[in-house]
Design brief:
homotetramer, Rossmann fold, 7-stranded mixed sheet, 11 helices, 39% helix
Chain lengths: 337, 337, 337, 337
């Protein structure tokens, strides 16, 4: 068996507790030895549930825990900057959930700290570890569709998060919260994005008006290569969690994504029906597990991460540019951000 | 049986000869009595093939033929203006293929002539008569998806037309040639379009450069209602004729379109495969026939057309605006055109 | 244009009037000059609807009409024998709908009359002219699935016919009425059938008990080649008209059939839904038209029919054997019938 | 956290090592403390790989290990009888993989031992724990399709096992080896099976002749309720692991099964293609894990198993009857076995 790595997990909210379970049960090389959360009860509950020796009410507890070999960050995005910088200073390897942070200045500071400390940093974007999205990448690289010329992405959530979450200071706005995944996949498949135009509005949930955010946005963009892209994001995918990507090339097209959860068809006088994927844990459970295993493999084998801190910054840059385009009502150059 | 209507068909190229066959074999109320084409051999060949009594080398022949009760125009787009104006002056009902014409000034002159003459005018857009696209409209009207908020359309042709056809003076450019269908469907489902942004390029067929046209374009737009839209068009749908539309509403989503031609699945070690719809005659044959039957029903029953001359002008206006946006690299207001 | 052939149509019930419409509107080479029906009003109505010059109250009227070049028989099955024998004696080419007749003795008499008269006879089985079923045949012949080893067929009707129709003397029983199509397709793909076992019952519609017929039957059989087959037939395909065939070979499998009528997907909180093919006219309309065109082509070109009188007899023989197996509760050899 | 249960695993071949991994990593309540295999190296390798304290070269080692609370049997089928009887005598709860054993006499002896000892016995049939197959059961129970009247099952393996495995004394023959799953699902959905008819042959792999086994079998059967069934099994599902079930009822039909492994569609000039599920570990991994969790839950909560020893016997009885029908070429009554 491979050498076990002692993990400290920072942030034990909804996603953090899922990660705790994955680290304990599905990542053979991981030994989850410490968890931290600003809400101490959350950290304690998770620690007890999974027999984790130590829990703390601050990321510093995990950082300073001498047992901890490597850190996984699933805290609130607005705290990523401080946690990453502190962890880097402690010289511990970092896995940080998306989005990296909410502002480009912060992101650049984080990179500086990571570079100065010389620590390993892996940016989280689980879609790249999904069987479907990674098969598309492989087929592109194999030349199955010739030269890719158009990217199309959709991200639709089945329900509105709490309004508080939508405040730009918490989520960074809908584009940064949702489309950053599509931008990362788009960049992975087709390279950097040059210019972008976004239009959006509050079209489905009037209560979103009060937050200053949108609930639907469509975007058209160009890649550095001249290739073209489109992404639409929506809070009202009320029929199910619908995440798609398509790449049209000169010799064919590739489509990733599916809606069906249970492999059963119901046929009655009302028609032919199947169910849908309810939400992200059902859709991307395997991808999260694969991503965590990949992080530990990289640490063991001293291999580079698939997604670097620069990928984190570049995805954020596109999201910031698109958000600005939305405000200005005009196309913008991504390089200017 | 209903009263027969004597039809004169102007334009007997590829689409015109298909129409001749439909009028003879699939439109019970139609009696095709005359055809015209600027290339007389084409008119003659069609006339002989279908036992049509009269053929002419100019639309004026059809217009002046006293037997002709109503006219169907499938001539080259650049000749639509002259033919429509002349036919209107002869007081004959008009069915005119899309696009109506290549410039908004021409379109407005055509409307003037039609209005002055008080003749019936039906704009051709066969997609509205397709089982799939019309089922989407019906479901929207029934409220199945609540309020529509995002429209997504794709039009992909399986191969490049002759370069000569791509010259802006012939086709009006890729947007006008292809996306005008998507705009018509978008307007039908969700009302008028307010602003539009287009980006495109020559990405698949370098030879298109010489024509000044594009081979791929993506567009993001807003409707008057505030709803959002996206359309992508491509000349390199090399895998098959791929025409789709999706409408996301507050309660669900509707998708029209399909790729499968033959209802057979082939499963071997290479995977599970099915074929695709080769091109528009296979995909929209029934829709063309339904549209022609609808035209004759409207004439018999003195009912208004589903698609008016104003729909022709409005679709063209969006296409002209989008083409201008493509040139300017900026979003434009449709009303300014 | 090809030489027109004057057709006399015998039987103008539900299917017969569909055929009248097809012959008038979709079979360019056909000139429908006479119709006959034992219910004279039916013949008259069809004649008036389609401007057919002559109508008769007996097949003899059509047979003796000197204008009639060729006959199409869509009369009640129990009258096929008399009509075919009489038509053969008049020396006119025959297209006869399935099933050929209800008893093997009758079928053999019919063959004798046709052979003696030396007239052209084409057995109707429209499935062979369906795009899907014929694509399967083509793929088998191309070797795509290696050697075919298992055939699976399903025929499910969306509702129960009138009870009177179910009486064995009218329909020949459920197997003869429904599975004869599956047997014909099975034989086409894989050769003659050697032995068969059938079990069935009245499982969905208690009122069928009174007729002595079944409403569901499943059958397992062997081909002469040693290959295996299964067919299930049902009167309670209440969800839609569901006709399928699958051929498993040594290198893959082929599946024909589909349920979707309109190319639209509806996605709401209730799941993802599409509609179904309602009944045979929607499913096989094109196949009927193709079959009629094929008949006329065979007459013009003096080519042999795809489906011969021997195919009619062989399919019937399997159906008779299966019906006997159902009664006996034991497997039977087809050759013994 | 729930009380942990110490598990002893007997049999560490292909399936047994999968089970070891599941018990260690995916079944939170399980504590795998001992493994046994007649090939000691296999037991040792698995023990070392998963840090399992004890390993033995015989099931008796596990049975007598005082640490072991409960047993999981994944040994060769021909050893099931001895292992189950010995384990029952030790008074330990038993989970036993399918098929229970190869002869009905043995099965009845096993039941006697289990009953006498009063130990818990859960028969393994992972399909009942699959999301798709269990959703079908739920929908039937909810009345979605009315009364079930026809069952259709298919089990197709993507390649031939080693010839040695096919010898009747090892696998019990193809029906017992493969169709026993279909019979269990059929019985779960629709009750006991009354009579059965099987035909089969060596159609794809001539080398199977030497074993006396078949490579393809089709079966038609009746349930006690009068309902009907069909199952086909094949060793030449060379295109992928294809496991399906369909239940036709008086109000609709339900279909379980799927072929697609990766959610990606590839569309090129060659058509639209997707991949397939390669084999059972990919298809039923989740079902195995769910089944093992269910076993431990039953032990903790003292609940009855979903699949009892009588289900094990009844499924075997149908398989034995079908195998006999295959030999005799005649339908047989299941009760007579």
């Amino acid at each position: 068996m491979k050498k076990m790595i002692n993990i400290g997990l920072i942030g034990t909210g909804r996603l953090g507790s899922m990660y705790a379970e994955f680290l304990v049960q599905r990542v053979p090389q991981a030994n989850l030895v410490a968890v931290a959360d600003l809400i101490p009860e959350r950290a304690k509950t998770v620690a007890e549930k999974f027999d984790i020796p130590n829990w703390y009410d601050s990321h510093r507890g995990v950082n300073c825990d001498p047992q901890v070999d490597a850190v996984v960050i699933t805290a609130t995005t607005s705290n990523h900057k401080e946690i990453v910088i502190d962890t880097a200073r402690e010289g511990k390897p970092i896995f940080c959930e998306k989005p990296m942070t909410l502002s480009l200045d912060d992101a650049r500071e984080m990179k500086q700290a990571v570079t100065t400390a010389g620590v390993f940093y892996q940016q989280g974007y689980m879609r790249r570890f999904d069987k479907g999205f990674s098969a598309v990448k492989r087929k592109i690289d194999e030349g199955v569709i010739g030269t890719p010329v158009v990217f199309r992405g959709s991200s639709r959530d089945p329900f509105l998060p709490e309004l508080n979450y939508l405040l730009p200071e918490n989520s960074g706005g809908q584009i940064l919260d949702m489309a950053i995944h599509d931008f990362d996949i788009a960049r992975w498949y087709m390279g950097d994005i040059r210019s972008i135009y976004a239009v959006g509005g509050v079209l489905a949930f009037p209560e979103v008006e009060s937050t200053g955010d949108t609930d639907n946005v469509v975007m058209a963009f160009t890649f550095q290569s001249g290739a073209l892209g489109e992404v639409d994001i929506s809070r009202n995918g009320v029929y199910g969690y619908d995440i798609r990507a398509e790449v049209l090339g000169t010799k064919g097209t590739l489509k990733a994504g599916y809606l069906r959860d249970t492999p059963i068809l119901v046929m009655t006088k009302e028609g032919v029906t199947h169910d849908v994927v309810p939400y992200f844990p059902e859709r991307f459970c395997e991808a999260y597990v694969t991503q965590l295993n990949d992080y530990l493999n990289n640490l063991s084998n001293e291999t580079d991460p698939l997604i670097t801190i620069d990928d984190g910054i570049s995805g954020l840059q596109v999201a910031v540019a698109a958000t600005d385009s939305l405000k200005k009502g005009a196309a913008v150059n991504v390089a200017g951000y």
